[in-house]
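User: Hey, my collaborator sent me this sequence without any context and asked if I could get a structure. I don't really work with proteins. Can you help?
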Amino acid sequence: MAGWDVTVLVADHLDDRPLHILGAQTLDLECALASVATRPRPQALAAGADLFGCDPRVRRGVLQAIDHGVTEVTLWGESWPAELEASVSRVLHPLSAAARTFKAAALAAAAAAPGAVAGSEIFRSGLVARDSVAADLVPA
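Assistant: No problem. I've predicted the 3D structure and written it out in structure-token form, which is a compact way to encode the shape of the chain:
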């Protein structure tokens, strides 16, 4: 099967349906952080920039991933941490028609305000020096 196996770490379990529509599994954040030493290192790590700013464990994990250069790091959100300006760049992720359809369904399940789903998304990414698992992310 093509695509990614995605696990989303969640602090609260209000409604996982939007994530499941997108094909993601969910795992409790506290359990995942408690077992980080015994779990395999992911090929890619994506985090909300706001979470980076307010949770020191997430901040530490993101910085370690960038420093080690083995895990690709991607951040999304409205504000970007100034300390990462030198190590992450803006990247554009084009969405296929199918991806836009699934995203619209997930947003509806999350009771988000209705609206058109854009054809692309902008993230900040620290690409690693090996073949990227996110080859569809291009400089924005």
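In plain terms: The chain has a mean pLDDT of 81. You can pass these tokens on to your collaborator as they are.
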